Amino acid sequence: MEPGSGAAGERAGERSGPGEALLLGVRHHGPGSARAVRRALDAARPRTVLIEGPPEADELIPLAADENLRPPVALLAHAVDEPGRSAFWPMAEFSPEWVAIRWALEHGVPARFIDLPAAHTLAWQRETDEHPEPPGPPPGDGPGVGAGLRDDLRVDPLATLAEAAGHDDPERWWEDVVEHRGPGRRDPFAPFTAIEEAMTALRETYGAEGGEWDAVREAYMRLQLRAAQREFGDGAVAVVCGAWHVPALRRRTALTADRALLKGLPRTRTDLTWVPWTHRRLVRAGGYGAGIDSPGWYAHLLASPDRPVERWLTRVAGLLREEDRVVSPAHVIEAVRLAETLAALRGRPLPGLSETTDAMRAVLCEGSDVPLALIRDRLVVGDDMGEVPATAPAVPLQRDLDRLQRRLRLRPEAAERELELDLRKETDSERSRLLHRLRLLGVRWGEPAVSRGSTGTFRETWRLRWEPELSVRVAEAGVWGTTVPAAATARAEADAVAARGLAEVTGLAERCLLAGLPDALPTVMQVLADRAALDTDVGHLAQALPALVRSLRYGDVRGTDTGALAGVAAGLAERIFVGLPPACAALDADAADEMRRHVDAVHGAVGLLEEAVGPERGTGLHTRPHARLRDGWRAVLRVLSGRDSVAAVVRGRAARLLLDGGEVERDEAALLMGLALSRGTPPAEAAAWIEGFVGDGADGGLLLVHDERLLGLVDGWLTGVSAEAFTDVLPLLRRTFSAYETGVRRSLGELVRRGPGERSSVLGADSGTAGFADDLDAGRADAVLPVVRLLLGLDGEQLNDTDTDTDDQLTTVTT
């Protein structure tokens, strides 16, 4: 039988009219539309199928027959000269366009895309970036029905049709009349006839054109339709497109008028390929999304034309059982009955997602929305991600990334997952380098996370999630090189030269070490040395030092030579030591608080610097050993703690760091606090000093809990503050003490309530230094010795063989 002949062909001819194409108006990503398209194509048997999409992708259509091309996928078009300028045309297995492509390939019928070429689409985007967006949805986006209405039209076509049919919910109406239609056997073209008549009436009522953008697209589609009719004959062409465009394609227009609309359109060179897509991305209405709410439900409707509700609720029951919820077959049966009853009460031909959800909430979830949220996340939306065969066109960088992903067994997945890496293992080390290199290139496949296990430098934790837009980021990064290491190296060198601040360059040096890019380090280090020599802002130097010192710690684990970094870090530290005291004078509150953070950062960096390179190793630039850097920093802290011109919050922080480091005794710390809280000190300045000294969370609170003298000084100062001044210092004090844990605040309140004498007995301070006993309490220390031994690894026989000297040492440590 020839295509288009027989009874089916006669019906198609009657429906389309002599010499007319079979126009199938659809809603993008609709399972009912997808089923109807397959039925219509089976009945009409056209000789060619034309599909709304970029014609440059015609050569990609045969790849849809590859078993390794699994939807959801998308056609990606990007400008060759501007890879970041791109557009997507998503397709799921329930998309009518995908069904039409698969039908054509299965029946040996040529398929073509007939929308405006991507070369014009991307160029149009570039020219309208500084102006309002063109009417209609972004390329490849939107629901299909109603896409293209002018911005000044306030009537939604679906809402108008639903209202005419007596429905107040346009989405539910569309599902009832199209998406939930059964297979049917009578007239496969009836739904498309009705949709075309409705859209024709809407366009006549609200405007024949949908704006300049749609007018141009529809003119191009008409030209392609005419060309196909000349090639294959009248009545042998089927067109699958958004329902809104059908009246425009049916309308007879002059060939010269259509060509005139297309004359002078901007264009740009483009590349197209298939890329994986995800159900979660289909949900998003903006950006590259498709704007549907329930892709998982739609996929289920297409895959389960018979008894869809029963099958769906069975899947839901299985999911809830996996989460240890009690769901029996009786629950499923009752939920099915309730969904069908609700559909009947609401006048629907089939229970939709709303009825099914109500039934699940009442029966399977016992009225709770918590398991319902899980069902929506896992099933209604889902984590389905498509696959693309290796034969699909791709930039060289994408090819190299695919190879690395296979070798390192890092498969891209739509669902977020955590990846724990042990950098002492070669495979994990390579995975870490790959993820860090991709971050340098702007391909944020993985985000560093806080490890739940060891915090050593040999462990890393990543959160991985592959998003479709990352394919665009890879295409963009292709300008830097053809392999991931080469591209990351070139990008790092360019970023170093273009960096605006010193901290940017030091952060980049750290990232280069993490990414294992030794070829980029010389350029980065040269820029770093130049910027460090010219930058005189102590704040900038203090921001740069911590990242630089952190980088030194990666040498042992990652096998990177960090000698040059050590020299630059030591030079930065010395310049900070010289410039920090004068930089801390005459600061307002915000600047003082920022400088306090710099002091904390430098304090930690100096300790890491000595730890990373050792006390006996020279810097290459300076002759004195690194251990002397710590001595220099201690001297700076002493200057900061005792100089009145330094901001109070910085003075308090310096005193606290000296106390924690054992550089001052508690008596001296109490003296510094007494001076800072004396009657001659303005209350606001005294409160700032307190914040600097004890405003570091639990540690500051515990210091006051266990040292009565310091607590008494704070208490005495606070009770002596006048009512007027107290109102001014209250916000600062509240910020300081609210950072403490609840238990610490409660303990402080109890100690203050009891008064000095009772506090001494509670804290065990009968005499001598307040808060501490004169003699060692050996009994209390002996009680924790077994635990300390276990922490030190002295278990089993070693516990019994521990000598008296060791016990004495442990006793001293515990007390």
Automatic annotation (TrEMBL):
Q: List, as start-end ranges, the regions of compositional bias called Low complexity.
A: 1-10
Q: Where on the tree of life does the source sit, at the highest rank? A: Bacteria
The record, for Pfam families, names:
DUF5682
In residue numbers, the region (Disordered) covers: 1-22, 127-150
Listed InterPro entries: DUF5682, LolB
Please name the PANTHER family in this protein's record. OUTER MEMBRANE LOLAB LIPOPROTEIN INSERTION APPARATUS, PTHR30634:SF14
**Name under which the protein is recorded:** DUF5682 family protein
